[in-house]
Amino acid sequence: MDLTTLERLPLWIDGRAVAAHTSRYGEVTNPATGEVIRHVPLGDADDVDAAVAAAAAALPAWRAAPSLRRARMLMRFRDLMETHKKELAKLVSQEHGKTLTDAEGSITRGIEVIEFATGIPHLLKGEFSENVGTEVDSFSLRQPVGVCAGITPFNFPAMVPMWMFPVAIACGNTFILKPSERVPTMSLRMAELLKEAGLPDGVFNVVPGDKVAVDAILAHPGIKAVSFVGSTPIAKYIYETGARNGKRVQALGGAKNHAVVLPDADLAFATEALIGAAYGSAGERCMAVSAVVAVGDAGDRLCERLADRARAVALGPGDAPGSDMGPVITCAARDRIVGLIDRGVDEGAMLVVDGRKPSVPGHESGFFVGTTLFDHVTPQMTIYREEIFGPVLVILRAESLDAAIDLVNANPYANGAALFTRSGYAARRFQEHVEVGMIGINVPIPVPMAFYSFGGWRGSLFGDLHVHGMDGVRFYTRGKAVTSRWPNDGSAAPGFHMPTMG
To answer: If pLDDT is split at 50, 70 and 90, which confidence band does 496 have?
Structure first.
């Protein structure tokens, strides 16, 4: 099925595309043109219930399947994702707006999680202790939790879902994906490829939707675990509501990622790194650098370099040759970002590069915001306190490394932070004392590889387990301890006393 030609998208339930129960549909737009390109069903409680029924029916056979069989299916899925990568990147770019190279890179990072998940048979091994007592052995098991759900954001239509479902299904769970209604088609295409790879019907289901679908997932008694990536207010709501309904929840929230630049840093290198980290994907990344802390006399020199480089960023449609940065996701997102830029000016920040009125010939109806740079920003300003989620970079000043560390640690978000320096001592002090979940040393976007886990601290994470890596395996499995004895006939049984070993 060519999903891109459909006027109305389907759901994916029990291994096939099906019409939705809901009568509500939303518009999917191409952000570069503002054109409505298809309509997406906004799933309701009946749609979620149908997906849960399919996932529950598929669960017994899938959890009983040998872990190697599950891994081999994921190997085939990985090969299909690689084969279709360029086609899939075009789909991501069309609905999100990011450049083709950026879209392809994000798919590659998702494929790395599939590769990690193919090794999960090794990670599901338990522990064994012989003779913990006389002829008594103990061992542990890790078993799937059941039907799981993922609620994913618009900014990474491929990568963020792949942070979740490959690990979940490799561990023997079945899965329901609720992608953002703004970018739904990639999830449906991945469902097709999973079926082609040999995934049994019902193991993976897709129900696009808005808050109605989210609330149905959080309330459904058949769903045992929920993963979420999105803004902090919604992450907190997901966590509290899901936990209240007895679910295991991991909810990743927003960010205000800092990059601290010391006077000894290679400023040419730091500038190039920061430009990509701030303006790549139009700043619509939870790991985007949105605040630079210039230490000592690095400030003026760094600001000048960043301004020159920001003005040179080529703005245009994601599929246009030479485009460095595409549009933001919606008209509302554009207007919100522009309003925050206005607020920064009103509050006294120095606007060095103004992206409020960009020119993109032939795409006047697109949702474009140009690169924007502020200097002399203070922690009290709105453009520092709020997650802008757009191509806006702010520079703050600090007198010392310790002052910069204090600034990072005072922020309510704690996703990631980076340091640019030539000093090993400074790097060690930074990584030891900064209170965030992910740290980069001369690496501006420190997204861990798939065999490590992704997640932040404070307002950037609700729950105590991050996504993918070993935390992902722990989240999608439950531990069970078994103590066993095989006595000969006539052996004495334990009495009324508290059993002890020895």
So the answer is: low
Look at residue 501 and tell me if it is in a domain.
no
How far is it, in rounded angstroms, from Cα 391 to Cα 414? 20
DSSP H stretches of helix in 394-444: 401-410, 424-433
- Domain match, 196 and 62 both: yes
Residue 341 CA to residue 322 CA, distance in Å, equals 26
Query: Rounded mean pLDDT of 263-288?
Result: 95
Which of 397, 399, 354 lies closest to 373, judged by CA?
Answer: 354
Distance, CA of 306 to CA of 449 (rounded, Å): 28
pTM of the model: 0.94
> Domain of 24?
3-253+460-481
Eight-state DSSP code of residue 280 = G
* DSSP letter string, 45-87: HHHHHHHHHHHHHHHHHHHHS-HHHHHHHHHHHHHHHHHTHHH
pLDDT computed for residue 497 by the predictor: 61
- Chain mean position to CA 470: 16
| Domain assignment present for 429 | yes
At residue 207's C-alpha, the angle toward residues 9 and 99, to 5°, is 65
Question: What is the residue type of 167?
Answer: V
Whether residue 286 lies in the annotated active site? yes
Number of domains in the chain: 2
C-alpha 375/C-alpha 470 separation (Å) is: 40
Which tokens belong to 104?
Answer: 């392809």
Q: Give residue 493's pLDDT band: very low, low, confident or very high (50, 70, 90).
A: low
Residue among 181, 235, 187 at smallest CA distance from 213: 181
Considering the domain architecture, whether residues 207 and 160 belong to the same structural domain is answered as yes
Backbone dihedral region for residue 209 (phi beyond 0: left; psi -120 to 50: alpha; all else: beta)? left
Q: Does residue 346 share a domain with residue 263?
A: yes
**Catalytic one among 148, 171, 286, 303?**
286
178-214 pLDDT per residue, tens: 999 999 999 999 999 999 999 999 999 999 999 999 9
Do 112 and 129 share a domain, yes or no?
yes
Q: Where residue 135 falls among pLDDT bands split at 50, 70, 90? A: confident
Q: Which residue has the tokens 């990509």?
A: 276
Last residue of a domain, one of 388, 414, 441: 441
371-413: per-residue pLDDT in tens? 999 999 999 999 999 999 999 999 999 999 999 999 999 999 9
Residue 349 belongs to a domain with what CATH number? 3.40.309.10
Label residues 279-309 b or e (16+ Cβ within 10 Å = b).
Answer: bbbbbbbbbbbbbbbbbbebbeebbebbbeb
Q: Which CATH number belongs to the domain containing residue 57 in this structure?
A: 3.40.605.10
Q: Are residues 282 and 396 in the same domain?
A: yes
Please report which confidence band the pLDDT of residue 489 belongs to, taking 50, 70 and 90 as the band edges: confident
